Structures are given as structure tokens and as C-alpha cells.
């Protein structure tokens, strides 16, 4: 697994390098992180409202990443790209989430689904109704609860996505 922070998906949204680094203790060990790469979730996440600073760490799986608390080393969530992992997945981002992200139409807003790893022999599931949204330009994030329609809070992650 790579422990580098994920860059923004396009050059226009890459955060500036400030030269100001901070040491962040993670589930994977200590990292020196440019402060510009720390994401702010103003309302925290469901179940973790006090955790407001997060990092997205690359995974060795192309459709997955880790959302690591910058404040609590033992708190990291496995995320999956729902568009890559679940054929036919689509989502309408609610206007309140767009406002929280300070998103404009040209922004790169990443959508991730939190994953629950199953016990031995039990498949992993993704919460396709409690999505994690990240605006790379503003370095803000929000967890958005949506009506999943055909999707579930426990959608089985297809074989091969996390292998």
C-alpha cells in the first residue's frame, strides 16, 4: 500500500504546496503531510462528529482509498469508488451537500462509499447511501445521506474490487 496522500484528480484543483508540513500519526505509521492536503469535514462523519480533519491515503487497489483521521491515529475508513465498483451506479448530490462543499460546476467532487470488511468468508459491503464527498479544490468534505433507490447501506462489493 502506498501511504502518499492522493493528489487531486486534475491539475486545476491541485492544492498548493505550502512548504508547511505537519506530522500526522496514522493507522499505518507516522506521515509528514503538507498542511494543504488536510481535508476539513466541518460536521465530521456519521458516528465521528468531532473528527474534522482527514487525509485521503492511496491504496494498492485502484478503486479504493483510505480516509484517515488526522486527529486519531487508529481511525481510518476504507473507501471504494462506487462508480468503478458498482456498474450502473449514479447519484444526485443534494444541494445542501453542494453548499457544504462550496462546490461550483467546474469543481472535481470525488464520491466514495465507506466499506465494511467482512469476517473470513463474508464479503465486504459498501454503504452506497452514506457517501463521502470531497471537493478537491476547497479541500472540504461531507458525508451525505441519500435515498439509495436500488442501492443499499450494505451493498456487497463485487469480487475483484478489493482483492
Shape: globular
The overall pLDDT, averaged over residues, is: 86
Low-confidence stretches: 1-17
| First-residue to last-residue Cα separation | 13 Å
User: What's the total helix number?
Assistant: 2
Number of strands: 11
Strand content: 25-35%
Rounded to an integer in angstroms, the radius of gyration calculated over CA atoms is 15 Å
- The secondary-structure class comes to mainly beta
Helix coverage percent: under 10%
Largest sheet: 9 strands, antiparallel
Helix-strand string:
EEEEEEHHEEEEE
What do these coordinates show?
The chain has 163 residues and is mainly β. It has two helices and eleven strands; from the N terminus they run E-E-E-E-E-E-H-H-E-E-E-E-E. The strands form two sheets. Strands 3, 4, 5, 6, 7, 8, 9, 10 and 11 form a nine-stranded antiparallel β-sheet that branches. A two-stranded antiparallel ribbon has the order 1-2. A hairpin with a 5-residue loop joins strand 4 and strand 5. The longest helix is centred in the middle third of the chain and has 6 residues. The radius of gyration is 15 Å and the shape is globular.
SSE layout and pairings?
Elements: E1 21-26, E2 29-34, E3 39-40, E4 53-58, E5 64-69, E6 76-80, H1 82-85, H2 95-100, E7 109-116, E8 125-126, E9 130-135, E10 140-145, E11 155-156
Antiparallel strand pairs: 1-2, 3-4, 4-5, 5-6, 6-7, 7-8, 7-9, 8-11, 9-10
